[in-house]
Every structure is written in C-alpha cells, then in structure tokens.
Amino acid sequence: MYDDIAMHELNPRPGVIINHPQGENLYDGVPKDYTGEHVTAQNLYAVLLGDRKAVKGGSGKVVNSKANDRIFIFYSDHGGPGVLGMPNMPYVYAMEFIDVLKKKHAAKSYKGMVIYVEACESGSIFEGVMPKDLDIYVTTASNAQESSFGTYCPGMDPSPPPEYITCLGDLYSVAWMEDSETHNLKRETISQQYQAVKERTSNFNNYNSGSHVMEYGNTSVKSEKLYLYQGFDPASTNFPPNKLQPDQMGVVNQRDADLLFMWHMYKNAAEGSEKKSEMLKQITETMRHRKHLDASIDMIGVILFGPDKGSRILNSVRARGLPLVDDWQCLKSMVRVFETHCGSLTQYGMKHMRAFANICNSGVSQALMEETSEAACSGNELRQWHPAIRGYSA
C-alpha cells in the first residue's frame, strides 16, 4: 500500500481509514512492507516472483510460495487500455504483468492463483493475452473499454460521514469485500462471489452507472471455496447464505473522482480565503491540462490519418479476444514520445492508451510520431506536467 491516507493532513480522522460510511478503522495492524517511493512496478514483479535480490527498499519480504500454495492478489488503482496505475512511475503494462505470471507458473511455485483487479478498462490487461493454462483465475472491475465507478461519495446515499469530502470506495471493490465480510467463505465458492459481484458492479444492470465484471484465465477454479484464497474468519461461521441485500448505489466515474474532491474542497473553503483561490486555480489548471491532452490526441490523429479517418482509427476497438496492441514495446515508446512533447498523461489521460495502441497497429514509426507530437503540442508550456517532474508513464 502507498500509505498516503492515514496520516495525510486532509484526513479528518488522523490514523484512521474507512471504506464504508459506517465502517470501522481498517488501518490498525495492516502490514506495510512496501510504502511510498518503494511502491513500484519493478518491486511488484520482484515480490510476486519471490526475487529478494531484485527488490529495492521496503521490508524485503517476497511471495516465497511453494507448489502447494494458493495465492490471492487484489490490485486497485487507476487504469487505462493496457495499463494499471502506480503511485510511482512507470505504470504496469499488461504484457509485462502477464510475463511475470508466466514466470511464476514456470517456477511451479503455486497450486492456484486468484486475481481481482479494480481499474478503468481493466479487462484490457488480460483480453487476448491471458493464457488459460496457468492455473490462474482473474476477474476485473470492467471490460476492456469502459470506466469503473467510485461510490460512497459525498452527497450520495449512503454518504460518508459529514467531515469526509472524498469517495470511500468503488463499486467492484465494495462488492467483493462486503460479500466476503457477510458470508461464510468455507461455504461460498469463487463462482458464487463472481456472480454476486458481477450483479452489484453492474449497479443491477444499469450500465450507465455500472460496469461489466469480466473473467479470464482458468475458470475451473471457480468451484473452489473462497477461504482457500481469502482466508476464513470464525465469526462468519453462522452467517446466512444471503445476508447482504444491497440496492443500487450512487456513483462517479473514477476519472472524475479527483475533480469531485477538489470541488468539495473549493466549496467548503471560506469566501475570499487563500484556500478557495488556490483550489479554484488547481481545478482550472487540471481542466486545462485535460483539454490539452484531448485536443493533442485529436490533432495527432488528424495529422497522421487525415480529418476524416483520424478519430475513427484512434478510437477503434479490436474484436473481443484480440490483444490491445501487437507490439507492446511500440506502445511504450509512443507514450514516451507523446509525454516528451505534450506532457504527462496523468490518470485522466490513461484513457488515451488505446489511441497510442492503434497508432502502433497502423504501422506508424517512432520518428513520425516524434514529428507529429512536436507539431501538435508546439507552443504549449508543460510546466508542472513535464515528465521530468512527473515521471514517464512508460
């Protein structure tokens, strides 16, 4: 965990983290092996592979699993087509993550693995690239082309405690965690949880405010009991099979959750105060950079493919079962070229990863992308959005 919440100056309850409006403190006793600057893609890979020599910083603890062990992984961050966010650059790219899973399988160091992923377009991490013979079962919060949704936000029902001005969770994570907390996991199967989470994350088939939970990999493990992967709380022994009966929930698009937070900060600041002026400036600058990213991508499409085809080619979605891109190294190269000339993608701009993938799939050279990005973004001051400050996404 990045560990930037509990002691943050804006946390209304210092030392406390909750994920439900009436939730208890979840921070006490949580093991923190890798925090802050040590939460990186490379450390993630090294920890999963049990490679102590490759770990940099942190406790040095790794997943030193054996052939009969079962592994459960929950990954939650922002996302985009083919990428998962990291608090420290670079991001986790799909093919690199899949390669790590293949190495873990080749080492014969687990019996079964279940992975839950919460991120926008999280299905794209596994679509067309996740083998079915690794003894790994994956579910994702969304399919390969849709956002996921935050919930338990201010103004929603239920709403966080009044002193909170941020969302406490997201539909997918809330769904699986609350399902696990209210069931006997020695009785409930992985398949049963998948169905429950799928229904709740869809916001009960309301896909304007919900997403499609997807599954990948080896589905034969779905008949296994959840406790084998998530553990067991003796207090849940006598829980009824259907204790949880949730309703539709209020949501916000994950990519707008930061704006919602900033808006509440602005609204709550005293009139005429320096804080109110500062928040207005921050909102304005964030929106300006968002518009710049969108316009730059549009212009690159026009320059490369013409005004009639640009948008269609950049936004085209491949048939289900095909990977996002044929050459993943090309994708990373195109992202670096863009960020050099146009600034950091940020979590909002991760949505444009599909455009870079389609540029690669269309055979555009790196030299042409350099020339095009420079033309599209000339005259724009990168300021705090410069990758030298933010870091490169790839």
UniProtKB/TrEMBL annotation:
Q: Alphabetically, which GO biological process terms does the record hold?
A: proteolysis involved in protein catabolic process; vacuolar protein processing
- Occurrences of domain Legumain prodomain (ranges): 281-377
Could you state one GO cellular component term attached to this entry?
vacuole
Q: Which UniProt keywords apply?
A: Hydrolase, Protease, Signal, Thiol protease
Q: Where is the active site?
A: H78, C120 (nucleophile)
Q: Which organism is it from?
A: Citrus sinensis (Sweet orange)
Query: What Pfam families would the database entry show?
Result: Legum_prodom (PF20985), Peptidase_C13 (PF01650)
Q: Which family does it belong to?
A: Belongs to the peptidase C13 family.
Q: Matching InterPro entries, A to Z?
A: AE (IPR043577), Legum_prodom (IPR048501), Legumain_prodom_sf (IPR046427), Peptidase_C13 (IPR001096)
Q: What is this protein called?
A: Legumain prodomain domain-containing protein
Statement: the UniProt record of this protein carries the keyword Hydrolase: yes
The major lineage groups are: Eukaryota, Viridiplantae, Streptophyta, Embryophyta, Tracheophyta
| Molecular functions per Gene Ontology | cysteine-type endopeptidase activity
